[in-house]
Amino acid sequence: MSSKAWKSRQESDPYVRRARADGFRARAAYKLLELDERDRLFHGVRRVVDLGSAPGSWSQVAARRVGKDGCVIALDLLEMSPVAGVDFIAGDFRENEVLDQLEALLGGEKVDLVLSDMAPNLSGVGPSDQARSMHLAELALDFARSWLDISGKLVVKVFQGAGFDDLLTDFRRTFNTVKIRKPAASRSESREVYLVGIELRSGQ
Fold first, then answer.
1. Is 13 within a domain?
2. Which CATH number does the domain housing residue 192 bear?
3. Catalytic site residues?
4. Which of 5, 114, 177, 186 is the most exposed place for a label (fewest CB within 10 A)?
5. How much is the pTM?
6. For residues 144 and 154, what is the distance between their CA atoms, to the nearest angstrom?
7. Distance CA 182, CA 38 (A)
């Protein structure tokens, strides 16, 4: 898509206009808000980890939902401007140094909700981009297995295509309840959907 076409689409997008009016950094905020309305993601949640958080719209939603008594920790390789009520860790969440910082902020507690709206930088080569997207989703699932409380929840963005069925199987092996969601704010032409996993199966 040319820069002119992209700008035109953004200007005509009602979610972009709403994001500006509501103070969100990106239209993606409304995807998470709808998921929360449908699946009560933030019900009973105090500790949230947002993987691949930049530019920060999901962290903004999380901070508003859990309030001042909650804990929201955002992680990303990219720098992210500060968000009120959110602790940010710059780095790769697979690295020990980053995980040590996360553990210190959590104070030894488990996480109630893990969020991942991560997507790879697209190369334009479909099979390669799909494989990288699936890899990011698998990393988020592995992270959740280690850090979630037994009653916790995981939300991961994925793209339907090669590897999707295998990932869905892994989700169903990991969580008691698994849902596939396509929020209204997801563009109709996009293959993006969200997998929602609720309550870890025993033995995870």
1. no
2. 3.40.50.150
3. 157
4. 5
5. 0.92
6. 7
7. 11
